[in-house]
Amino acid sequence: MTNKGDYQSDKGSGNWEPDPYHRHDQRWWSGNRWSEKVRSNEETRIDPPGVITNPVHRDSQTGPAEPILDSPLPMRHISRYIPHMLLLGGMIFVATLCLALISVFS
């Protein structure tokens, strides 16, 4: 993985530099850190949240990720009683609704 310092510019503070995240054409380098300000096709905008937090060197991504074949089973298993609880909850809701209607209209 490449360090953030590998992308630093010697031009001083406040420069448009090639985007180290490879999402846009350029990204604003404040002199200390990369900004959320980006430029693509001469249009300046704010990079949406959820981007990779560290720059990625283009050579480190040689192709698609390999599938994980030996992953364990899911950690959470659904209880076999959930359908029963949903049915019981629905019956209680219908009974409450019927009692409310009877008390209002009688």
Keywords for this entry:
106 residues; alpha+beta; four-stranded antiparallel β-sheet; 1 helix; 4 strands; 18% strand
Provide the fold topology.
Layout: E1 15-18, E2 26-29, E3 34-40, E4 43-46, H1 82-105
Describe this structure in words.
The protein has 106 residues and is an alpha+beta fold. Helix content is 23%, strand content 18%. It has one helix spanning 82-105; strands at 15-18, 26-29, 34-40, 43-46. A hairpin with a 4-residue loop joins strand 2 (26-29) and strand 3 (34-40).
Task: Provide a short characterization of the protein structure.
The chain has 106 residues and is an alpha+beta fold. 23% of the residues lie in helices and 18% in strands.
Structural classification: alpha+beta
- Counting DSSP H or I runs of 4 or more residues, the number of helices is 1
Write down how many β-strands occur, each being a DSSP E stretch of 2 or more residues. 4
Which stretches of 5+ consecutive residues score pLDDT under 50?
A: 1-11
Strand content: 15-25%
The chain-level mean pLDDT equals: 76
Radius of gyration: 28 Å
- Main beta sheet strand tally, sense and closure: 4 strands, antiparallel
Distance between the ends: 74 Å
Order of helices and strands: EEEEH
Q: Which strand order spans the largest sheet, edge to edge or round the barrel? A: 1-2-3-4
Q: Overall 3D geometry?
A: elongated
